[in-house]
């Protein structure tokens, strides 16, 4: 249903995504892993057409997405809703209005200007919030909610668009472990119950293993792994993250930096001993 062929994005001399070729033939739950700067966000942004591609193509259900513009591009963007690490809500606006923002593409300028929403949309927004366990918070300002609750509001806003694909760029990177779990469970449920494809950039390996059917590993802009969580061995993970022998199963891209920092004094100690 979704195919990326030799997808490339360059920023000057820097090739952020380098000839990525991937085929998604069913709406799975997919995790993209890799260390900081590997090209994960750029890949998602190209998919959503927030970023133009330098070369290569994206096709969805036989249509070329790569060159869409104007209304057709906006239609595609509503079909593949994006959620972000920082939630991107309007903090002072109430939760239900934030969710209703997900219908902006479908409404006239005048209706948008006066915040006029059809009753059916308001009911649907509350139903979606209910499904995500946060309907009680509907009248509150978004800023009054916890991070995990705000991310669920962002997911609700995405669902208002009735997307076929949900793209999540580090959806749990700002959350504590408890909230992270609730958000990942919500995304998994949306995938399983609605049959929507979910593609999430994740910075922890164990999250990718636990919630995803398929894991894609990126390194220096290239896709270096594409397989099931079972196929993702520690050796493979080490290669994706460009880590040494010190790499452990529990390690993540953030932890690798810590590992490198802790590895440095060890090397120094060896040198001193010599
Ligand atoms: N708008 C931009 N202008 C210039 N360079 C960019 C831009 N966006 C990304 N890059 C570069 O492209 C490369 C890939 O960045 P990207 O944000 O896609 O990586 P990432 O894997 O998502 O990393 P992180 O986990 O830190 O977000 C990096 O070298 C980055 O500096």
Could you walk me through the main structural features you see in this protein, from its secondary elements to its overall organization?
The protein is an alpha/beta fold and 274 residues long. The chain has one domain: Rossmann fold, CATH 3.40.50.300. Helix content is 40%, strand content 22%. It has 10 helices and 10 strands. A 6-stranded mixed beta sheet has the order 6-7-8-3-9-10, sandwiched between helices. The chain has a 4-stranded antiparallel beta sheet with strand order 2-1-4-5, covered by helices on one side. A hairpin with a 2-residue loop joins β9 and β10. α6 runs parallel beside α7. The longest helix has 21 residues. The N and C termini lie far apart (59 Å). 40% of the residues are buried. Bound molecules: adenosine-5'-triphosphate. Adenosine-5'-triphosphate (ATP) binds next to β2 and α1.
